[in-house]
Amino acid sequence: MHEYFVTQQLIKIAEDELKNLDFKKVTRIKVVVGELSGIIDESLKFYFDILTKGTILEGTQLKIIPKKALLYCQKCSEYFERTKDFTCPKCLSVGKLTEHGKEFYIESIEVDD
Amino acid sequence: MEIKVIKNILERNQNAADNIRRLADENKWYIMNVMGSPGAGKTSFIKCMIENLKDIFNIVVIEGDVASTIDAQAIASYGVEVLQINTGGACHLVADSIAEAIDTLKPVPKTVIFVENIGNLICPSSFDLGENLKVVVSSAAEGDDKPYKYPAMFEKADVVVLSKIDVIDAIGFDMQRYKKGLEAIKDKDLKLFEVSFRTKEGVKSLTNYFYTLLDQYFKSRGKCL
Ligand SMILES: [Zn+2]
Questions:
Q1: Taking the model in full, what pTM does it have?
Q2: What ipTM, to 2 d.p.?
Q3: What is the nearest CA distance from A54 to chain B, expressed in angstroms?
Q4: Does B122 sit within 8 Å of A38, measured CB to CB?
Q5: Which residues bind Zn(2+) (chain A) (predicted)?
Q6: What does the pLDDT read at residue B30?
Q7: CA distance A58 to chain B (A)
Q8: Among candidates A40, A23, A19, A18, which has minimal Cα distance to A109?
Q9: Which candidate from B9, B152, B185 shows the least CB-CB separation from A102?
Q10: Is B39 helix (H, G, I), strand (E, B) or coil?
Q11: Residues 6+ positions from A14 with CB-CB distance below 8 Å
């Protein structure tokens, strides 16, 4: 569960972003997590709560925005959601993995000013 | 107020990995990140490479393990330098710990560095270690559905070693299905080796492949060894 490591990184990025800003409280951090990113939401939240104790991020809501993996069918020129054996639901040819589903980034930080 | 960020969280690891890649290039090291499930045959693969190539190339091993030193001891008994990283529970190696290990080992120029990653098919795939090559060892015993279940890992692999092929018939492993999964995932040329480290089937062509790969790498970077 590499969420411990990645949560540390996440917190560091957020703190850097907030360094020179004037605000009362950080209310929410939105993180985009793709289905194939290897990140488990629950672990992320678990470590976030522990690691932010006593920091400016304590009590901040970690909002996770999940992204589904999408495969691409070259025959139909269309994206489709992951099927059991990667076959396109329309034409049954085998789709290719795409970047959709591998996301893992902080989208935004919300603060009360 | 909402502050837009859009920043990759794995950036720090990426920076460390890029740094390793630069160092490796300067020192003509060749780094192989060996990944796979627990018991898939990662250590067997590395032992096989050591056995067949240590007289030709200088080899060191960085052994990642959650807690034990069993694999490190097994490799040390082959007479190559090995450094153990205990992650203390973490499920993958990070570039920072590889940088530290390399700093401790101080490999001479033209060294092959094998990194045995922690056994699992999810987490290690997210972390670039600055390696030249990603090898995924996947055993037939685990079943033919692994590429479908863990696509991110197989997509990143440069070489897939399908081990324990001696059990294929016994467990009804469907090679067609397995290969179809790999082909769906991979854009680059699929390098798949079917081997059994127990019966030695396929070991020769696996060894030849790595011999040629390493020989060319080192020759292209100065005079031969
Ligand atoms: Zn289609």
A1: 0.86
A2: 0.71
A3: 22
A4: yes
A5: 73, 76, 88, 91
A6: 97
A7: 18
A8: A18
A9: B152
A10: coil
A11: A26, A29, A57, A106, A109, B5
- From chain B, the residues in CB contact with A2 under 8 A are 90-92, 123, 126-127
CB contact under 8 A, B90 and A108: no
Res. A62: pLDDT tops 50: yes
The pLDDT value recorded for residue B69 is 78
* Chain B residues whose beta carbon lies within 8 Å of the beta carbon of residue A14: 5
Exposed, middle or buried by CB within 10 Å (0-12, 13-18, 19+), for B118?
buried
Q: Find all residues with CB under 8 Å of A71, minimum gap 6, and list them.
A: A79, A80, A81, A82, A83, A86, A88, A95, A96, A97, A98, B184
pLDDT tens digit at each of 225 positions of chain B? 888 888 888 888 899 999 999 999 999 999 999 999 999 999 999 999 999 999 999 999 999 877 677 888 888 888 899 998 877 667 778 898 899 999 999 999 999 999 999 888 887 888 899 999 999 999 999 999 999 999 989 998 999 999 999 999 999 999 999 998 998 887 667 799 999 999 999 999 999 999 999 999 999 887 544
- Chain B residues near residue A96 by CB distance under 8 angstroms: 184-185, 187
Distance B191 CA to ligand 1 centre (A): 26
Centroid of ligand 1 to alpha carbon of A73 (angstroms): 5
Helices A3-18 and A41-51 pack at an angle, to 10 degrees, of 60
Q: Locate tokens 């699929």: which residue? A: B190
Residues of chain A found within 8 Å of residue B94, distances taken between Cβ atoms = 5
CA-closest candidate to residue B150, choices B35, B63, B34: B35
Instruction: Please report the residues numbered 92 through 111 in chain A whose beta carbons come closer than 8 angstroms to any beta carbon of chain B.
Output: 94-97, 102, 104-111
* Contact call for residues A109 and A19 (beta carbons, < 8 A): no
